[in-house]
Each structure stands twice: as C-alpha cells, then as structure tokens.
Amino acid sequence: MTERAVPAPIGYLALIRAYRDFRFLWLGQIVSNLGDWFNLIASASLITTFTESGLAVGGLFMIRTLAPFLASPIGGVIADRYNRRNVILITNFLRAPVVLAFLWVRDAGDIWLLYGLTALQLFISGIFFPARTALLPDIVPKHGIGTANVITGATFSAMLAIGSALGGFVSGSIGIYPAFVINGLTYLIAAIFLVQIRFHRPSSPNEDLRTLKQVLREYLDGLRYMNHHRYLLVIAPHKAFIGLLLGSTFEVVQVAIAEKVFTIGESGGISLGLMFAFTGVGLALGPLLIRQVIKDRIPQLVWAITLGYLIGSLGLALTAPLLSFGSALIGTFLRGIGNGVVWMFSTQLVLQLVPTHVRGRVVATEFAFSMLVSAAGAAIVGSGLDSPLGISGVAWIMAGLTLLPAILWSLWLIAGGSNKLLRQNAVV
Prior knowledge:
By secondary structure, this protein is mainly alpha-helical.
C-alpha cells in the first residue's frame, strides 16, 4: 500500500501569510497561551506557599485535568454542531473574569476558592480546545494541515517556554498576584484577534441542542464512529500516555523539585519557571526538527511517535537522580522533545484522517481520556511525593513506564497498523 500523491507541504510563513483565518487564530493563541502559563506558575506557587504539601499540589493538577475531562464531551458536540469560530471566541471571553477572581485567594483558608476557580477556568477550556483543534482543517487546505498543526504546537511550546519563564520571574520577584492580572488581560487581547476570523460553518437542522440527552446522543454517535474506525482507538490513548508520563502528571514532580531541591526565587517560582521554559523549548524544537526529515509522510510519522516516547523516557531518567539543576533542566528539555513529538504527530494523524462532521467529538474524546488519566496520575504522584519513594523514586518509575506505550505502539504498527492508516488517508 502506498500513499496517494498530495501537494508538497506549505511552508510555515507561506501558510501564515496566505490564510487569513489561520493567521488570526494563531495570533490569538500566542497571546492566550502566554497568559495561561502565568496562571499555572502563580497557582502552583500559591499552593506551595500556603500548604507545603505535595498532595495539595497534586490536587491542583488533578483539578486542572479533571475539569476539562468533564467538559470535553460537551465541547466535542458543540464543536461539531455550532460555528467553531464563535465557540472559541465566546469561551475565550468567559475565561477572563474567572482568572481575575484568583485575586481573592489570600491565605490557606482560600485554597478551596483557588481550586474552584481553577475548575471553572479549565472547564471552559475543555469546551474551547476541541473547537479550536477541529477548526484547523476547516481554514487550511489538506496539504497545509501538517504545517498548521506544527505551527500551533510550536506556538504552544514557545509560549510555555516564554510564559513560564516570565511567569516564574513575575511570581518569584514582583509577586504572585500580578500574574493573574496578566492572564486575564491576555484573554481579552486574544479576543481582538479571534473576532476577525471569518470562517462560518453552514447552519444545520440538527444544530439546536436543548437537552443533555441530545448532547449525550450526539456524543455517543461520535464514539460509535470511533468504534467503527478501530485505528482511532489505538491513536487516542497517545495523549493519555503523554499526560500520565511526560506531561501534566510530571508537572507535579517539577513543582516539588523547584520547591524542595533546586529552589530559586520565592517558593521556587524562578526555578519552576525555568523548568517549564526548558520543557517548552523541547516541545517546540522536537517536532519542528523531525518534521524536516519525515515531511508529513505517514510511514515515517508513525514511527516518529515511537522515537518520541524513547526520548521522553531518556529525559525522565536524566532528571530522576537529581544530580544538579543543570542535569534536571537537560532532562526536562528531552522530556519536552518526547512529549511534543508524540502529541503533535498523533494530533496530525487525527486531523488528516477524520472527516469534519465528527472531528470535534473525536478530538474531544482523546482529550477527555487524556485528562481523566492525568487527573488520576496527578493524585497518585502527589501521594508518591509524600511517601518514602520521594521525588527521585517517582521520576524513575515514570521513566520506566514510558517505555510501555512505545513497545505497544510499535507492535501494532508491525502487525499491520501502518497500512491501515495509509488506507484511511487515501480515502479521506
């Protein structure tokens, strides 16, 4: 089986210049992602300042993943039934007053408020994310999907690096609360760009969803599509493995490293920001460099996912001994490369292989599964940090477990999975 001939991938700058809607979506992402990382650093710093508990930090990250899990099925249906441009615009506006309310969190007795506001912010984000991701193939041509996906992923990663570093500096030197103000303003600024997107999805007679039963029925239709196309059931767990081993779960460990081992700035805010920054650089560079070699070719792309897991495992193994802050940063950088490669290329498979009428629900399902697993992982890791295992023990376990999805994915490809993906790509 061979891939059908497609035009050469569009260059990064050419895509940004030629496709107006994508350009404004991208500019809005730059601003909002920047503020998101200010919020995360500030929230984690508040938790450590008020509680000094690994379990409490784990609770924060559990909420940050559980809330979008609950929202994602609703978000997937909304993304497939309503104008995706309007969905991302409205949800972006709604997040601004929520993050500004973090200013009311002033002592340990207000931790419940921080948790509640985090849940609300990330619930709204769980509706925003499927619509934004599903919108990409609607506003760029098929041979531009890979380019748009890499730009979007690299932008997220770059803003992780820049936003975390700046957020760590602001939280660790100027103060924690200005970071929340900056986050709220970024949502409002991003809306200025998003409102200029012209994409309009034609109305549908089935578009009005008035009851939860209707939403559930629409979402189950999406699950039936995935069950009929079994390759999606193999691709979907990648984001869950990332969240559990290389992504948000390990962020709980990073907070502990910054607070208890390599502490720079108030509550380790600066060292935490630097670790997130190195993660962001790895997230951005890994997919960009590998894509220069594979050129969006599916046979090479699917094996790059295996490579991503191996690099991520190496990064965790380098971090685990906690020999020095420098070695931890290098390990964090490698973990970011692995994370970015697996996330980016598994997303590209979904965007290329799933038709528009069900794309939002498929994206939401893999995102929801990722969030559920990450929520459980955050709670487990938070408890592990307070146990005799400690930081180093938890990191070593995660390094070993990261090899498991690499092995399972590789076995599926060898057993014929690669050919199945090629056949699907030829008919979509």
